Amino acid sequence: DAANKYLQHGGGIAGQMVRRGGEIIQEESNKLSPIKTGEAVITSAGILPARFVIHAVGPKMGEGTEDEKLYNAIKNSLNIANERNLKAIAIPAISTGIFGYPAERCAKVMKKAVYDFLKTKTTLEKIIVCLYEDWKYKIFLKEFT
């Protein structure tokens, strides 16, 4: 889940997760916030068809060291999934919405973070990149193939 540092899930993907999964996601998030850009935390998934939601805070364009912060957000999400012995994780194009991070850069950083992570021993069998716009899908497909 692409989140803000206060883990207030009002809009975007985060807001949809709370609306569909239930207020328990927001209540658990409130106990964990605030977190820094590049960090990730885990909550239950409420009534979503998943066991957990991993909330990662990506960078806003213009704040500096954006690539490093995005890399850390993705890598920390993968590490949390691995620590929980999860078999699969779905990751959106973090920061490419209202935070203004270019999709092309996000695809490159995500590829590096995922490939670096896969060099370690992991329980993850499937890493899914969730993309909701066709134009972003094309960018990520080109980068990952």
UniProtKB/TrEMBL annotation:
SUPFAM superfamilies: Macro domain-like (SSF52949). Residues 1-145 form the Macro domain. This is Macro domain-containing protein.
